[in-house]
Write a structure and sequence with these properties.
The protein has about 650 residues and is α+β, with helices and mostly antiparallel strands.
């Protein structure tokens, strides 16, 4: 019996869930108000016979004791396993040396951050040094109770205040440096990272301090400074205020995403508590992964540039600080639409009055904020309005620009009804028959490939026989799970990466396989699945079952199938990058930025070469290609 099964056997789901919800017996089941959304009529049902639960209301989700505690407490699978094992009185296997070391390091860094947060808070609230910072916060409308609730602080304009305090608290200098509280200059001297700044402790969803943000009181630069990357802190995956907002987000069914610290603090003070901030960074998929555990309705109250909406046609941007100048995808309107489909979510845009941030608007005119919130537009609706407003539809060029910017967004919509609605609207505005736009939409959605596949004779190969039940991403993962010995070859030959997978579940399974790669020689699907959360584990099981339901594969056929679909994923990924870069090129040309034009052209040429190489590898992976390679080799050797 696995440890998961043993936990389920020892912990009765009705008894366990009774600590979280008020269950009432109803025949052979129990019912309650769903703890994951607000409702007046019970729609949360627990089934004692199967030890499962399901919400038949707005959540429309369910699962077992593991999925409940993971969602209720926002835990990863491993954390849920540890919590439930402890409650069941089951001892888990000991952590290995690397896990123990990492856990110990994170515990030390959390302790350092907590001590630093307490120091900064005392300096703000009760020291003469913090008086100017207190006055600044008061001018911004922050009351003393709010300063305490958010544990706001002040770092004096001194080079060693935090460093010396933490040393006196018996923390090692190397750990203080690793936590990001100190920094090392070119001369090797170590000094405080935060000096002369208001301090905003940044917490994870469990309330642990993972980093800090600091704001100057004058006009010096940088205006804001965050903790650098640490084992605890990654700016692209933390949301300021999530520790105080997560219950309100779940209860209200909506998460409002803003930009800065004050945009969270003032609204919370005024009773708007379902806000979090992405701290001036672009909204990332990791941010959305955190929020999807709590709600399926997101409202972006961001400057359009921050949300990525004004740069939708660019699709990708250059990582300026990367020496290799790697092209990386950003979350654009098209990306938001795709993520909306994947999450089964609704993402809306709140248009702020010009020149007003959320904190200023709520302080000045709360009814206006509520009105704008109620009128937030769906992503596609908002972006359509923006494009139609910014283009001159009386000219051929304006119509061409509107079509080129909007079609990729419309094509990203999975719902045929919604896609047709927005296509008809665009056709009406540019005064063209929608049937003339449809082929381009289908091309962007990859329909020609699907049409070509459906036109081929049925059952010509085992991979075609399975294509109706498994898409390229799912087939690739199913084969990797079934033939893990081929994983290294897929990475090398196809240059397969997580970015090639558009479905978030598939991407996470692939990342888990990559992490497991060092142990591939002792592959155990059960052990691998143990490291996944409930949703991913079910996804893996489904992939395996679907693959095994098809005709059996010979080793050679499995190898060819895996290589071909891996290379196809890589090629499709490159095609998406090239397609999006065309919009970057168009933007640079219109702005007359010649250096940027040359730069983008060079990137497109490099990606085109890589795509050509993928085409060559795709042919080489086929039986015919391998046969030709053997014949060429034999001919070259004179045999």
């Amino acid at each position: 019996m696995s440890v998961i099964d043993e936990i389920k056997q020892r912990l009765d789901i009705v008894e366990f869930l009774s600590a979280y919800v008020h269950l009432q017996k109803s025949g052979r089941t129990y019912k309650a108000l769903c703890p994951f959304h607000t409702e007046k009529t019970p729609s949360f049902i627990v089934f004692p016979e199967t030890q499962t639960w399901r919400c038949f209301g707005a959540c429309s989700t369910g699962g077992d004791i593991f999925s409940f505690i993971m969602r209720r407490e926002n835990l990863g699978f491993r954390e849920a396993l540890e919590l439930l094992a402890e409650k069941a009185g089951i001892e888990l296997r000991p952590l290995d040396s690397a896990e123990i070391e990492l856990k110990g390091e994170k515990d030390r860094l959390r302790a350092i951050n907590l001590e630093a947060a307490q120091l900064y808070h005392r300096l703000l609230m009760s020291s003469s040094q913090g008086e100017a910072a207190r006055r600044y916060l008061e001018r911004r409308g922050v009351v003393r109770e709010t300063m305490v609730a958010f544990q706001l602080g002040y770092a004096p304009d001194d080079w060693h205040v935090a460093e010396e305090h933490l040393k006196r608290a018996h923390f090692a200098p190397e750990d203080i440096l690793k936590a990001g509280l100190t920094t090392k200059g070119e001369s090797g001297a170590v000094y405080d990272r935060f000096r002369g700044r208001i301090i905003f402790p940044i917490r994870d969803i469990q309330g642990h301090v993972v980093g800090f943000g600091g704001r100057v009181l004058d006009d010096s630069l940088p205006k804001y400074l965050n903790t650098s990357q640490t084992p605890l802190f990654d700016k692209g995956s933390v949301l300021y205020g999530i520790d105080l907002a997560h219950r309100s987000i779940r209860d209200s069914g909506t998460a409002i995403i803003v930009e800065g610290y004050m945009d969270v603090i003032i609204p919370h003070q005024c009773g708007v508590t379902n806000l979090v901030a992405c701290m001036g960074t672009a909204l990332t998929e990791e941010h959305l992964r955190i929020l999807k555990r709590m709600t399926r309705q997101l409202i972006l109250a961001l400057d359009p540039d921050v949300a990525g909406m004004r740069a939708v046609e660019r699709g990708v941007e250059t990582a300026q600080k990367n020496l290799d100048r790697k092209v990386v995808p950003v979350l654009t309107a098209k990306g938001l639409v795709r993520y909306e489909e994947q999450l089964n979510a609704e993402i809306r845009i709140l248009v702020l009055p010009e020149g007003l941030d959320p904190d200023e608007l709520i302080l000045r005119d709360r009814p206006r904020w509520d009105q704008l919130l109620a009128g937030a537009l769906p992503v596609v609706e908002y972006f359509t309005n923006v494009v139609l407003r910014e283009t001159d539809l009386a000219t051929a060029r304006g119509k061409r620009e509107a079509v080129s910017r909007l079609l990729p967004v419309i094509a990203a919509i999975d719902s045929a009804v919604a896609r047709t609605h927005y296509l008809q609207r665009l056709a009406q505005h540019v005064r063209i028959d929608e049937r003339e736009l449809l082929p381009e939409v289908e091309r962007l959605r990859g329909a020609p490939d699907r049409a070509a596949a459906s036109a081929k004779p049925a059952a010509t190969s085992t991979s075609q026989a399975r294509s109706a039940s498994l898409g390229p991403e799912e087939r690739c993962l199913a084969l990797l799970l079934d033939r893990p010995a081929l994983f290294a070859e897929a990475l090398e030959m196809a240059e397969l990466t997580a970015e090639a997978f558009q479905d978030e579940r598939n991407r996470q399974v692939f990342e888990a396989l990559r992490s497991y790669a060092p142990k591939m020689a002792q592959w155990s699907l059960g052990e691998f699945a143990l490291g996944l959360d409930t949703e991913l584990r079910a996804h893996v099981e489904s992939l395996q079952q679907t693959l095994r339901a098809g005709p059996p594969l010979t080793p050679e056929a499995a190898h060819e199938d895996l290589m071909k679909c891996s290379i196809r994923l890589r090629r499709d990924y490159l095609s998406r990058l090239i397609h999006d870069l065309r919009f970057v090129l168009q933007d640079a040309q219109e702005q007359g930025a010649q250096e940027r034009v040359r730069e983008v052209n060079a990137m497109m040429e490099q990606l085109t070469r890589e795509r050509y190489e993928s085409d060559r590898r795709s042919y080489a992976a086929t039986l015919l290609g391998r046969k030709k390679a053997r014949e060429d080799s034999a001919s070259g050797n004179g045999t």
